[in-house]
Amino acid sequence: MPGSQNGFDNSGHGGTANWISSATAGNMQVSLSILEAIVSKYGTSSWSDVVWGLELVNEPVVWDGPSAQDVASWAGKAFDALIDLSDNPDLKIIMHDAFVGAANWEPVGSAINEECTEPSFYIDVHLYQNQDWADSQLTQAQHIQRVCNYSTTAFLPASSNLPVVVGEFTDQTNICVDAKGNVTSGTSCSTPGCQCSANLDTSQWNGYLVNATRLFLEAQMDVFEEYSEGWFLWSYHGPGAWGLNNLFNAGVVGPNTVTQRKFPPQCP
C-alpha cells in the first residue's frame, strides 16, 4: 500500500509504515482508488468464475485504538464503494484482521453485513506457529493443541454475522525427530539419525518426520474446514514445508487430494 501498511518487506517497503499516518492521510484514498480500478474489471460477473473475492489490504499494522478505528472505518468505506461498483452478487470483500484477531472485527463486520442479503464482508486471519521464539519451544503435540484451541481463540461462533477465512497458514513448525520417532522442539539436534524440519529439504525427510508434520497439517485442515469459510496454505511453490507441492511429494498430504486423511482427527 502507498506509504507501506506495515513496514515489512511484504508491503514492498521495509522500514516505516505510513499508510495510516495522519501526515500521509491521502494514502488510504489512493489505495481505494486503485481497488476501485481493480473491481471495475475483476469484480464483474464475467470474472465471477475466476475471482471469488478481493482482499482490501494485506497485514496492515495498527498501533493503538485510533489507528485501529481509522482502518476499520476505511474498510467499511471501501466495502461500500466496491460493492456498488461490482455487478457480481457473489463477490466477497475480505479484510485482514490487522493482527488484532477476528473477534475485534466482529462488531464492525457484522454491521457491514447487515446491509447484505448474505454476508459479503469477510475477515482474514493468518495462523502461523513458527514466527516467534516461543513457537520454537513447542513440541508437535503442543502445536497441535494450539490448533485445537483455534476454535475459540481464532474463529467466531456460528451465530456471528462475520465469516472468517484463513488466508495464510503453513505446515512448517520447528521440530526435530530422532531415530526412534521421538519428537522434540527446536531447530537442531545431535543424536544419530535425528532430523529437523527447518534444516532439510522435504525430499530427505524420513517417515517419522513426515508423519509428525502430517499430524499437524491434518489437524489444521480439519479445524479450518469446521470453523472457517476456507483456507489457503502459503504457498504452493515454497521452501520445505511452506510449499504445498513439496508436501504432496513428501507424502505429508495426499497422495491425490488434500481431502485425504491418514490419521484420526486430532481435536475432539
> Order of helices and strands, N to C?
HEHEHEHEEEEHEH
Q: Could you describe the largest sheet, including whether it forms a barrel?
A: 5 strands, parallel
Distance between the termini: 41 Å
- Give the helix proportion (percent range): 25-40%
Treating each run of at least 4 consecutive H or I residues as one helix, how many helices? 6
Oligomer: single chain
Q: Based on DSSP secondary structure assignment, what is the total number of beta strands? A: 8
Q: What is the beta-strand fraction?
A: 5-15%
- For the largest sheet, list the strands in their spatial order: 1-2-3-4-8
What structural class is derived from the secondary structure elements?
Answer: alpha/beta
Overall pLDDT = 94
Overall, the morphology is globular
Rg, nearest Å: 20 Å
Low-pLDDT parts are none
Structurally, the number of domains stands at 2
Walkthrough of the structure:
- With 268 residues, this protein is of the alpha/beta class.
- It has two domains: 125 residues, no CATH class; 141 residues, no CATH class.
- The chain contains six helices and eight strands, in the order H-E-H-E-H-E-H-E-E-E-E-H-E-H.
- It has a five-stranded parallel sheet, covered by helices on one side. Strands 6-5-7 form a three-stranded antiparallel sheet, covered by helices on one side.
- Helix 4 links the parallel strand 3 and strand 4.
- Helix 1 runs parallel beside helix 2 and helix 4 packs parallel to helix 5.
- The protein is globular, with a radius of gyration of 20 Å.
Present the secondary structure layout.
Layout lengths: L25 H17 L10 E3 L9 H21 L6 E5 L5 H12 L7 E7 L12 H14 L10 E6 L5 E3 L5 E3 L9 E2 L10 H21 L3 E3 L10 H7 L18
Parallel strand pairs: 1-2, 2-3, 3-4, 4-8
Antiparallel strand pairs: 5-6, 5-7
